[in-house]
Design goal:
Elements (H helix, E strand, L loop, with lengths): L2 E7 L2 E6 L2 E5 L3 H5 L4 H10 L7 H8 L8 E6 L3 H10 L6 H9 L4 E6 L4 E2 L4 E4 L6 E2 L2 E7 L5 E9 L1 E2 H6 L4 H5 L5 E10 L8 E8 L2 E9 L7 H8 L9 E4 L17 E6 L3 E9 L2
Parallel strand pairs: 4-15, 6-12, 7-17
Antiparallel strand pairs: 1-2, 1-12, 2-3, 4-5, 8-11, 9-10, 9-15, 10-12, 13-14, 13-16, 16-17
Length: 283
Amino acid sequence: MEYIRLYNTTQGIFAYYHERYYRMEGSWDTLVNASNLFSSLSKAIAAAQPASDAEAVIQQHLLPPISSQEIWAAGVTYFRSKVARMEESEDSGGATFYDLVYEADRPELFFKSTARRAVGHGHKVNIRKDSTWNVPEPELTLFINREGAIQGYTIGNDMSSRSIEGENPLYLPQAKTYEKSAAIGPCLLVPDQTISPDTEIRMRILRNGQPQYSDAVPISQMKRGHQELAGYLYREVDFPDGCYLMTGTCLVPDSSFTLQENDVVEITINPIGTLVNTIALKK
């Protein structure tokens, strides 16, 4: 598989291809919505000069790979996620809903974040002060262009307040959508073919430098297909600038674990890279 990594920074957009960086012209929204993104970027790179300052700029001025796009998410796409959701909502009587949606034809899709509320690699993500049980959710995230075609992939952290969602499934928007509740990055991976089902999602959580959780899972364990999820999302909604779709998680820490301020979450999906975020509270 050949691929291009696209980085968004305060100093412009850079593409990484065949071990070299190139500065891209145009806005993010226009660039990523080309009908065949890999081919379009390849042609632009062929006409561009290598950018010698790119690595330093990316290290110091990196933004999340997003501009006007919304971020949506899919839930209960892995069996482990179904079990975890049923456990957290058992006392409220809502457990059966997660079993039903796992088996249903229609997937669970929900709005996650605007670009303004999202953060990128190296930035802080928030946990809610009114939640007693907070976890990260590492997810392969699709970039779908305005035409509904999956054109690339990034890493997503769908921060979740499990105590709030477990209290009542109708509290899902409060459990999922709040300031800095979504992280994506570090780049947009644009491959020349569909990402392999053997691709692994790895997550590690550190507290005071010590690992608290570490595990990995292949995306082949996902019950639903990427095209299936994208098709449902675009059925009755237009996304003029494209959209990001988090595809669900299978890595769920034990119910005794909850995130604390200053914890560090590392999510790795190769060949995209590693997304690192520090846990914070809204000031």
